[in-house]
Design goal:
about 475 residues; 7-stranded mixed sheet; 5-stranded parallel sheet; 15 helices
């Protein structure tokens, strides 16, 4: 008679919760699932708070509706699985702008994360160099090659396109810089096309054609009531034992399974399980694997992270443009790198009292010293810079909130996917009952993290079935 499975999920963010739910749905009845979260709250960077009497996101704001192949994204599938589909809402204002040359200019259409598919459309914000994008008689990159986004785009379209378009777009997502970030990880569709096409313009157009979107189809969605409702529903549906304030400090192989050392050094708790889903950032994962799987730790531990702060202000009846927000190139010299006009962008958040919620993102990779400022200083600087970009004095905020996310955003350098694949290959060969999951390996965004957690859960189920347990 098979014994009952015991599976530990280390990390209570959306990746870990998606893994726990998939285990509950697919593993044998009676499987014991325990989620260990070192903080006091589940959800990781999904956190809905309250400001000036209304809900507001202090972390991730929305999710993509479609996956790269054009199907329903993993986030939407999860929302449906949890019975929350009727809560999905979409932006009512989609046009965003770039803060360049002291003013706001609409972000040009027809780009792929800022990389143009039509050079004529971007001339209002950047000066491309079309003569540099010549057909050299071979694909832009080799079949297994990865390059930095900035290196490719600068060579083909010039510095202006990178500095004023691509960099702010990537900075808004990763808080990183195009010259550092991996093409294969941050723009996989473009990387695939670049292995076939001979010009960057051709590669962008091929990547866009491979993922068509119906006119008017919403790109993003969120949940009325906030994304924390997704967290709560996933935790409930998973039926797992949730251990908050429970840091896992060591992982030790015990036969085909694992022993977890949990809690403070002076009073540790030892827990034996059959399998582990390790859904924590790469660096803490590397520390846990340094002893049991020394070959894997350095492959994932070299991943660096950027820190950011999200400053949200409640402003009484400000004069805001009809935009969802704006992005700021680093060349503009502002502390703000992006701003979202919540109550303009999301119709369900608009208030009858005229109060507007405006959020600014602060912090770029390698510029974390700016985040050492006190909350009050950050909020005052954001207010001043917003007034400058909008060219109008904004009213004093009636409320505000500063959310700091230390080490929040992975900085994927070229070769990242190969390093992760190599690490996972070692684990599958030597320790198949341990699986890595999360943004540190597979990419950022709620759908990617959900899919990563679900895939890790499937690998654990396959490994335990194969062991005869």
């Amino acid at each position: 008679m098979a014994t009952r499975w015991r599976v530990a999920v280390v990390g209570g963010g959306i990746t870990g919760l998606a893994a726990a739910l998939r285990l509950r749905d697919r593993a044998p009845e009676g499987t014991e699932i325990t989620v260990y979260e070192q903080s006091g709250a589940l959800g990781g960077k999904l956190r809905t708070g309250e400001l000036a009497g209304g809900p507001v996101e202090f972390g991730a704001e929305s999710f993509l509706m479609r996956d790269p192949a054009g199907g329903e994204s993993a986030a939407v599938t999860l929302v449906r699985r949890l019975g929350l589909a009727e809560r999905i809402v979409h932006p009512t204002v989609g046009q965003a702008a770039l803060a360049v040359d002291g003013g706001l200019r609409p972000i040009p259409g027809g780009t792929l994360v800022g990389v143009p598919g039509d050079l004529a459309k971007v001339t209002a914000v950047a000066r491309p160099t079309p003569e540099a994008d010549r057909d050299g008689g071979r694909p832009l990159i080799g079949p297994d090659e990865d390059v930095a986004v900035g290196a490719l785009v600068r060579t083909r379209f010039g510095d202006d396109v990178v500095d004023r378009l691509v960099d702010p777009m990537l900075g808004g997502v990763y808080a990183g810089r195009a010259d550092d970030l991996s093409l294969a990880t941050t723009m996989p569709a473009l990387a695939r096309a670049a292995r076939v096409e001979h010009t960057l313009l051709g590669a962008v157009r091929a990547a866009q054609a491979a993922t068509p979107r119906a006119p008017g189809e919403p790109v993003f969605g969120t949940l009325a009531g906030g994304l924390s409702t997704l967290v709560d529903a996933a935790a409930t549906a998973a039926g797992a034992t949730v251990r908050r304030n429970a840091a896992v400090r060591e992982l030790t192989p015990v036969g085909p399974g694992w022993r977890l050392t949990v809690g403070p050094t002076r009073d540790p708790e030892h827990v034996d399980v059959d399998a582990v889903v390790l859904a924590v950032p790469a660096r803490p994962a590397a520390r846990l694997l340094a002893e049991p799987v020394a070959e894997v730790a350095p492959r994932i531990g070299e991943l660096d992270y950027a820190s950011v702060a999200l400053v949200t202000l409640a402003l009484p009846e400000p004069a805001l443009p009809a935009l969802s927000g704006f992005l700021v190139p680093s060349t503009e010299g502002l502390l703000i790198k992006a701003s979202t006009f919540f109550t303009t962008k999301w119709g369900h958040l608009r208030r009858s009292d005229g109060l507007a919620l405006v959020r600014a993102s602060v912090g770029r990779y390698r510029d974390e010293a700016q985040l050492q400022r006190p909350d009050q200083d950050l909020a005052a600087t954001v207010h001043r810079e917003l007034s400058g970009v909008l060219d109008t004095p904004l009213p004093a905020p009636v409320d505000g909130h500063v959310q700091r996310w230390g080490g929040a955003l992975p900085q994927y350098t070229p070769g990242h996917l190969d390093r992760v694949a190599a690490a996972r290959a070692v684990l599958r060969a030597t320790h198949p009952t341990l699986a890595l999951a999360g943004a540190g390996y597979d990419g950022v965004g709620i759908p990617v993290c959900v899919r990563s957690g679900e895939t890790a859960a499937e690998e654990i189920i396959t490994a335990l079935e194969g062991s005869g347990r």
